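User: Reviewer 2 asked us to show a designed sequence for the structure in our supplementary figure. I'm pasting the structure tokens here. Could you produce the per-position amino acids so we can include them in the response letter?
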């Protein structure tokens, strides 16, 4: 019995240890199971997320395909003809009338010749005789200049001239007196008379030299006087040419100062010329013509000129000069068809009979007629089919009900930006296809496709 008790006492500690170990194993096993469950749940969540993304992507793809299908159906419905499968085409009719090829540009009108009046002395403006816009003749007084010094110079020169003339008279009288003495002495007999004559003759060269010197002094004094008078006369400023006074900036009392080269200033206080006169019986227009059109412009070609400042006024003009060198065109409205920026050539046109309402500097719009044909057979430029080697054609309608067309060769005699003059088997009123080049290409493609299909069928048989 004691032995059993001892065994029991020994077994009890062993049971406690096993229990602890079992608990630890169970706990570890539980944690492992929990980790597996968590990992499983994470994997399930990721799979669910991927599944949702695939569904979304499929929905988007289906929507895109649906939009493309709908769009294709709409476009197809729009471009598919409703009249038996025949595509509608744009047409035009052959016309007969006046053909003109023109190039347009803009510039400003200016007088052909103008003269700036520049006073040649300094001083202050006295009286102004004319105003801007007045018509003057050569020699008419424009204005006067006050300069008291010029009067003083004239008076002094006059006194000097008088003194020189007085000296000349005195010298001449001396010579005359000596000559008279010589003559009287030679009329006397004897040696005494001869001695007097000889003595007087000895004085004569000096007296004659005095005359010559006095004559030179008179000439110099006369030149000084003439210069003083001429300078004084410049106080009255006259028109050097006939014409219209474009500018008159002279104001009474305004000072005019001489420049370093001795000439007077020619500009008023506002910077404009003091006075400018121009011949407005003819005027000019300077324009720039694009290099693409300049080869068709020639001297004496006619043109029409209009003016934004004078609505309704149209004047005739002619090409006068064409520049041989290029100029850079400004990208502005001042170039018309030729003002697109790039290389151009200066062209001057003359207006032989300008309107009195026109003023220099006004904007002028020019249309130069490069070619003009009366009673011309014309088609739209878009209807011309270029066949190469200077050969052209049009697509002529042969059946108005079925809209059938055939290619008809024509000769293009002239063309502008919109129309072409043609000769050939077409008449006024004929219906032709616009964009005939595309139609001709499509006709060629269709014929080629038909030939290829027939060849394929033949090989199949």
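Assistant: Here is a per-position design you can include in the supplement:
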């Amino acid at each position: 019995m004691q032995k059993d008790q001892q065994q029991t006492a020994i077994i009890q500690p062993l049971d406690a240890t096993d229990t602890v170990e079992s608990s630890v194993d169970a706990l570890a096993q539980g944690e492992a199971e929990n980790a597996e469950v968590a990992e499983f749940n994470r994997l399930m969540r990721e799979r669910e997320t991927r599944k949702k993304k695939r569904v979304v992507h499929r929905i988007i793809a289906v929507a895109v395909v649906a939009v493309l299908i709908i769009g294709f159906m709409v476009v197809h419905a729009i471009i598919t003809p409703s009249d038996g499968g025949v595509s509608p085409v744009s047409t035009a009719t052959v016309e007969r009338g006046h053909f003109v090829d023109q190039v347009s540009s803009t510039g400003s009108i200016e007088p052909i010749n103008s003269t700036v009046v520049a006073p040649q002395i300094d001083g202050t403006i006295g009286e102004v005789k004319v105003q801007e816009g007045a018509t003057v003749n050569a020699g008419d007084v424009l204005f006067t200049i006050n300069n008291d010094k010029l009067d003083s110079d004239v008076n002094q020169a006059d006194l000097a001239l008088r003194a020189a003339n007085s000296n000349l008279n005195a010298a001449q009288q001396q010579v005359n007196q000596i000559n008279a003495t010589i003559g009287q002495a030679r009329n006397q007999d004897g040696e005494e008379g001869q001695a007097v004559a000889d003595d007087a003759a000895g004085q004569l060269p000096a007296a004659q030299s005095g005359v010559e010197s006095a004559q030179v002094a008179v000439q110099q004094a006369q030149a000084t006087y003439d210069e003083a008078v001429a300078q004084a006369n410049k106080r009255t400023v006259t028109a050097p040419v006939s014409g219209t006074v474009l500018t008159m900036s002279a104001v009474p009392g305004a000072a005019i100062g001489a420049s370093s080269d001795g000439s007077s200033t020619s500009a008023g206080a506002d910077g404009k010329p003091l006075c400018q006169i121009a011949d407005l019986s003819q005027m000019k227009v300077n324009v720039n013509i694009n290099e693409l059109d300049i080869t068709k412009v020639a001297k004496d070609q006619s043109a029409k000129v209009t003016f934004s400042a004078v609505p309704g006024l149209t004047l005739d003009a002619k090409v006068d000069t064409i520049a041989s060198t290029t100029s850079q065109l400004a990208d502005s409205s001042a170039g018309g068809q030729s003002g697109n920026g790039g290389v151009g050539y200066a062209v001057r046109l003359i207006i032989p009979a300008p309107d009195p309402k026109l003023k220099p500097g006004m904007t002028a719009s020019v249309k130069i007629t490069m070619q003009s044909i009366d009673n011309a057979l014309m088609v739209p430029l878009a209807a011309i089919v270029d066949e190469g080697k200077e050969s052209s054609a049009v697509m002529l309608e042969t059946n108005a009900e079925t809209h059938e067309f055939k290619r008809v060769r024509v000769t293009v005699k002239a063309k502008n930006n919109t129309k072409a003059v043609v000769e050939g088997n077409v008449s006024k009123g004929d219906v032709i296809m616009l964009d005939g080049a595309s139609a001709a290409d499509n006709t060629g493609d269709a014929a080629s496709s038909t030939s290829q299909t027939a060849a394929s069928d033949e090989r199949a048989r």
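For the response letter, you might also mention the following. The first helix runs from residue 2 to 79. The chain has four helices and 18 strands.
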